[in-house]
Design brief:
The structure is a single chain. The chain has 467 residues and is mainly beta. The chain is 8% helix and 42% strand. The protein is built from seven helices and 35 strands. The strands form two sheets. The chain has an 18-stranded mixed sheet that branches. It has a 17-stranded mixed sheet that branches. Strand 33 and strand 34 form a beta hairpin.
């Protein structure tokens, strides 16, 4: 009779490599000593020894590498190639930790089908690569761990997304952006048609990217304690944006540079709209492909050159159609619109364009209603908790630690949520939910190559909700 549950249990995966000892406690209470290629089943509690590592290969392609002294329960598992809507995977971390590269469950059919539960949270997986560790007060010390260098911190985060947006990094890698996704220095942000997206930056500035727009975060350095070292260089390559400036430039306005079509918009504590369409967009795209003798990408091409060189279409606009070119409209504060050899002060509720005939900034004499009544959300209308989104807390002691190697997770506790992107770290327990500046050494400093060598994942999201 005791064998019947074993016969009924469905094979969920098998053991890959392992070192040390690994046992599985079955639903009927029996204990099985595992070996490479041993089958794991729904209901199993997998237990590694104090010096044991084990790789678990699930049927959907998920790879989990358990670290020493860890307990992981396969609470539910259903995967049929022909029935993606019936996918279901629920794991519970009872002790220790592991690294996961997720498989097909959660990427097809129901995006909420994959969950990892712990004492303080539930991690809903939508395709990612992450490490998690459940700690009591003293059981996360690891003599083999070595401190890790700080990871690259995001400079911005997506706070509103209506439609689709992607980022292309300095190395040319493209990733899909979701609500809460991080933005990094060197990213070019591209929106699809019928898309509005609000990105908040560390210095409390914000931008709204409108549809079919391309925006380059060339440089972004913010240090609240050392404003003299700060600087931002942002460029609208095509389309339209709405901008609220932040703390960069509060001491020296020249530390904040916003470029469009070879011109610069100087800020004075400002909210403005900028656009780059028609010849402006085409010239920006071509200028981005042009190379200087030094091999550096040329992003600023003098407006006069653009007007005279047929390789670079004239970016200017006309009074009859000011949106067909490059321009700016101010709805808060003031800006100065600067091109090579000329400048124009644009006051509140005024607008200016780069003239197609002269290549110089000139006022728009009759501002079209479509400019004044921009339908895209103002970036300052979106509430942002900057301390939560960009804070660099330090945690210690009992709780759940997560570091994301690739993809995205959302850590939620008691109605509060925290978005973690690639390279970011989070912590949750009964009292705290915080982003960590760097992961603790025990989380990423494991020197065992079998544990730290996993790769994979993608840029899809993952959700962590309170348990």
């Amino acid at each position: 009779m005791s064998a019947s549950p074993l016969l009924a249990a469905e094979v969920a995966g098998q053991i890959g490599y392992m070192s040390g000892a690994l046992v599985a406690q079955r639903t009927d209470g029996t204990i099985r000593v595992m070996a490479p290629k041993s089958q794991v089943q729904e209901g199993d509690v997998l237990v590694t020894s104090k010096d044991g590592y084990a790789q678990v290969k699930m049927n959907d392609g998920t790879m989990m590498t358990m670290r020493p002294d860890s307990n992981l329960k396969i609470e539910a598992y259903q995967y049929k190639k022909e029935a993606p809507q019936a996918d279901n995977a629920v794991f519970r971390l009872l002790k220790g930790g592991f690294r996961t590269v997720t498989g097909l469950i959660g990427k097809r059919g129901n995006p909420d089908a994959y969950k990892l539960r712990a004492a303080t949270s539930t991690i809903g997986i939508r395709g990612t690569d992450f490490t998690t560790r459940l700690c009591n007060d003293k059981d996360c010390q690891d003599s083999s761990a070595k401190p890790q260098p700080p990871v690259v911190q995001p400079v911005g985060r997506v706070m509103l997304l209506q439609g689709e947006m992607a980022a292309k990094d300095a190395a040319g890698k493209v990733r899909k952006l979701l609500l809460g996704s991080p933005v990094y220095e060197g990213d070019t942000l591209n929106t699809n048609i019928k898309t509005n997206a609000v990105v908040a930056f560390r210095d409390e500035s914000r931008i709204t990217l409108q549809e079919s727009s391309s925006f380059f975060v060339e440089k972004f350095k913010y240090d609240k304690a050392a404003p003299e070292k700060e600087g931002a260089v942002l460029r609208l390559l095509k389309g339209s944006v709405r901008v609220v400036t932040g703390l960069i430039g509060r001491v020296n306005h020249d530390n904040y540079k916003f470029g469009v079509a070879g011109a610069t918009i100087g800020i004075r504590g400002t909210g403005f709209d900028a656009w780059c369409n028609g010849g402006c967009a085409r010239s920006s795209e071509r200028a981005n492909l042009a190379q200087l003798d030094s091999g550096e990408t040329r992003l600023d091409v003098p407006v006069g050159m653009l007007a005279e060189n047929t390789d670079f279409p004239n970016p200017g606009a006309t009074q009859d159609n000011p949106l067909d070119g490059a321009g700016v409209y101010v709805w808060s504060g003031a800006v100065v619109f600067v091109t090579p050899g000329a400048s124009f002060d644009v006051a509140l509720q005024q607008a200016a364009i780069i003239s197609r005939s002269t290549g110089k900034p000139v006022p728009i004499f009759v501002i079209p209603k479509s400019i004044i009544e921009n339908g895209a959300p103002r970036p300052d209308s979106i509430p942002v908790d900057f301390n939560k989104e960009f804070g660099s807390g330090e945690a210690g002691g009992a709780g759940l630690y997560v570091t994301v190697h690739d993809g995205q997770v959302i850590l939620t506790q008691g109605g509060n949520s925290l978005n973690l992107g690639s390279g970011e770290n989070g912590f949750a327990n009964d009292q705290f939910l915080m982003r960590l500046a760097t992961p603790p050494a025990f989380l990423t400093g494991d020197t065992n190559h079998q544990f730290n060598g996993g790769t994979g994942g993608n840029a899809n999201g993952c959700t962590i909700t309170g348990q």
